[in-house]
Amino acid sequence: MKNHDYLLKCTQLIEDKMQSGKSNDWIDYNYTKLHDQIFEATRVSISIRTLKRIFKVNDNYEPQIATKNAMVQYLGYRDWAHFLKENFDTETNDIRISEETVNTPPKTLNQRYKTTKFWIISGVSLIVLIIGTTLFFNQFIDQPKVFFNVKNNSGHAPLTAAISYDLSNINYKNAFIDFGSGGEYKMLLAPKGELTYQYKTPNFYKMRLIADGKALAKTTVDVTTKGWVCYVGNNDQNARVVTDRDKFSDKTSLYFVPAIISTLQINTNEEYWVDYRNIRNFHVDGDQMTVEFRLRNSQNIGGFDCFDTSLEFTGESGRGRFKFVKPGCTQYADTEFGDTQLTGNFHNLSSLGVDLSKWTVVRIETRNKTSMVYIDNAFKFKTVYNTPIGNIRGLFCRFKGSGQLDFIRVYDQGHHLVYNDEFNR
Question: Measuring CA to CA, which residue among 358, 355, 403 is closest to residue 253?
């Protein structure tokens, strides 16, 4: 078999594990999620751009072995060679069978039991000794200090963050800074130094300093907006942030007319996305609040096929999101709250199949780690999660095509109105 076939099998298994449908339908959100999950499992950061090239399974592109190892380790294999052996019964140069394995006769059951018992007792004793020694010496030895500081970490886009770090007091093999922007990172070639990074898109980012796969320090970068802005494009390559609200408002709602979008060199005859976002501190607990959106998305105003509509809020700890689609397209629906992720390909999300061609009020309530969605006051769906959302730092309304947003209202736990925008101007 060819390397193409091996890589194809690997990507298919990852698609199954991700439960986000076929990668042909993935958007940047899916690749960002995969990047984060691979990193959490392996401490290897594979860029979004590389993941996109891999999942196109181009015969001319062959990822590095370190990249392939990380992908299959995310799937639970030891390395790429182990993956090939288990799935294709293929021997490679990375697989070795020792002479002892080939020539030594198998041990009897009793011999194996005694050997196993010996090693278990020895292992437990060694672990106890190591823990005891570590606890003893930690009383007298200061833990190594790591310096990590970020200046200019709050403001409007474009925002250039100034970063300084010092790893001189620790031993490590490699280190890098993950900027929290979907796979963008910087390898650190010296144990001490300074660098800058420019954030071009408004969002609430989580930056990490990582050495040998361990996050040693974390901070946030808050790229805020002056009210609502629009992130619009066919893809990340031609997408742009539009801050002039007159371009995407009809004075009574947020609505980016396709004819105006096309003047930005964005092809409105092909699929494009309109993403309204407001990044600021809303001073409300994302786990105890209510958010109402009045919206519509149809072909008549510029929507596409299944009329995907995502409502999302991001917090200091996690995020919540419901993605609605036209009834009959619910394999493309999904939801994510904290650590709970559900997709239409593997879960029954028929309740998220909603006709949004007419003005509709969507209400999302979170109470005690439970999120519930209502459509025009009718209960539709709920999901339970464990990881908290935290204080809300951003609201998003994302349409496939030119959807329309009429108002948004945010209430706290006591149902007091803490934010309201009717978009009348």
Answer: 403
CA distances from 200 to 94, 99, 181, 224, 239 (A): 42, 57, 10, 11, 11
**Three-point CA angle 63, 65, 66, nearest 5°:** 100
Environment class of residue 85 by beta-carbon count within 10 Å: exposed (0-12), middle (13-18) or buried (19+)? middle
Mean pLDDT value across the chain: 85
Radius of gyration of the chain from Cα atoms? 25
Label residue 109 by pLDDT band (50, 70, 90): very low
User: At a CB cut-off of 8 Å and minimum separation 6, what does 368 contact?
Assistant: 287, 288
What single-letter amino acid sits at 401? Answer: G
Three-class SS state of 255: strand
Pairing of strands 240-242, 229-233: antiparallel
CA–CA dist 372, 162 (Å, integer): 40
pTM above 0.85, yes or no: no
Contacts with 99 (C-beta within 8 Å, 6 or more apart), sequence order: none
CB 211 within 8 A of CB 172: yes
